């Protein structure tokens, strides 16, 4: 017979066996149902404007997938934002190479990596998802695909980022900056009123990275993951550390096991600490949106915040808790 005390005891045994903190707030396998409310969550302070754009799409009857694409296109077009799209920091050879991916409620996904000259890598990723049998196109192949589909070729290096690159050259020292100017990747998750969840993630990656370096952001399961039965997760910070633990997939799977969104994000951060000896010198943060509309975020280092929108007059920044 079901008995709460026995259940909690069994959960504790299960989680300690699995090496996980004993936090589950829902019995594993229990169905979490949607509430009919719209929720949008996205990384960093550039998320506020992105959320508004995504919200508009949902209000006008667009899908969650349309909403996440429209949302992240906002920082992609902002030349002052040096970590996403136009005006993103170049690699050490002066190339602005962009990474992005998108995932819809049916589990379809698409991505581009190392894409140059295109302001909206997220829309190219959407085309990869919608119009090809593939999930990821890279480099010249991704560019060729974008141009064949009518995307405009542009110079994405701005006067500001050219200057920063020239400055960097003086020492040519590779040192990723934690919480750079309160932005990094934008990862955005949206749930429409029917409960469907989609996600998008886009970045110019680490400033002055090696040419050809790809981080977590275009990798399904690392920078982004959605399972419409459970929820979605997205990541920001040092891509290499996030890829190594398949971070966003891990967060969703922890929610499947019963973890609350923030708890799942925290456990993924703890997994990075366990696996990454250099964890003190990097930032990694996760956001999660569960099927019942509950949200949460958690980071390794202090300073990570996210934008949460649950109504036309309720779009606000939330400071994520941090492990260190
Ligand atoms: N999270 C962005 C990157 O590492 O490229």
What form results from the Cα inertia axes?
A: globular
Q: Going by CATH, what is the homologous superfamily?
A: (Glycosyl)asparaginase
- Return the CATH topology: Glutamine Phosphoribosylpyrophosphate, subunit 1, domain 1
Can you tell me the CATH architecture?
4-Layer Sandwich
Helix content: 25-40%
Which consecutive residue ranges, at least 5 long each, have pLDDT under 50? 1-25
Helix/strand order, N-terminal first: HEHHEEHEHHEEEEHHHEEEEE
Number of helices, counting only DSSP H or I runs of 4 residues or more? 9
Number of domains: 1
Strand content: 15-25%
Number of strands: 13
Model description:
- The protein has 324 residues and is an alpha+beta fold.
- The chain has a single domain (36-322), classed as 4-Layer Sandwich (Glutamine Phosphoribosylpyrophosphate, subunit 1, domain 1), CATH 3.60.20.
- Helix content is 33%, strand content 22%.
- It contains 9 helices and 13 strands.
- The protein has helices spanning 4-17, 47-59, 64-77, 121-131, 139-148, 159-171, 239-244, 247-256, 261-275, and strands at 39-43, 98-103, 109-115, 136-138, 186-191, 197-203, 224-227, 231-237, 284-290, 295-299, 305-311, 314-319, 321-322.
- The strands form 2 sheets. It has an 8-stranded mixed sheet with strand order 4-3-2-6-5-1-11-12. A 5-stranded mixed sheet has the order 7-8-9-10-13.
- Helix 4 (121-131) links the parallel strand 3 and strand 4 (136-138).
- Helix 8 (247-256) crosses helix 9 (261-275).
- The longest helix is centred in the C-terminal third of the chain and has 15 residues, at 261-275.
- The protein starts with a helix and ends with a strand.
């Amino acid at each position: 017979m079901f008995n709460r005390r026995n259940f909690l005891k069994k959960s504790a045994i299960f989680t300690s066996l699995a090496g996980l903190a004993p936090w589950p707030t829902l019995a594993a396998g229990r169905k979490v149902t949607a509430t009919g409310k719209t929720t949008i969550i996205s990384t960093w302070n550039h998320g506020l404007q992105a959320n508004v754009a995504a919200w508009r799409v949902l209000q006008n009857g667009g899908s969650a997938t349309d909403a996440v694409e429209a949302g992240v296109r906002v920082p992609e077009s902002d030349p002052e934002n040096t970590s996403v799209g136009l005006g993103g920091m170049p690699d050490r050879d002066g190339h602005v190479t962009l990474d992005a991916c998108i995932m819809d409620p049916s589990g379809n996904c698409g991505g581009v990596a190392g894409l140059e000259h295109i302001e909206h890598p997220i829309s190219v990723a959407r085309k990869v998802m919608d119009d090809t049998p593939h999930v990821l196109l890279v480099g010249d192949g991704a560019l060729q695909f974008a141009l064949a589909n009518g995307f405009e070729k542009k110079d994405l290096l701005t006067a500001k980022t050219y200057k920063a690159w020239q400055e960097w050259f003086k020492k040519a020292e590779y040192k990723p900056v934690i919480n750079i100017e309160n932005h990094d990747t934008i990862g955005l998750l949206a749930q429409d009123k029917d409960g469907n969840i989609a996600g998008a993630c886009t970045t110019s990656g680490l400033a002055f990275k090696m040419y050809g370096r790809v981080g977590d952001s275009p990798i399904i399961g690392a920078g982004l993951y959605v399972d419409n039965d459970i929820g979605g997760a997205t990541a920001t910070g040092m891509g290499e550390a996030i890829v190594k633990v398949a971070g966003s997939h891990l967060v969703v799977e922890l929610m499947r096991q019963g973890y609350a969104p923030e708890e799942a994000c925290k456990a993924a951060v703890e997994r990075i600490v366990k696996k990454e000896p250099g964890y003190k010198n990097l930032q990694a943060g996760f956001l999660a949106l569960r099927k019942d509309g509950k949200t949460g975020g958690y980071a390794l280092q202090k300073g990570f915040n996210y934008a949460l929108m649950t109504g036309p007059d309720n779009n606000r920044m939330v400071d994520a808790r941090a492990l260190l």
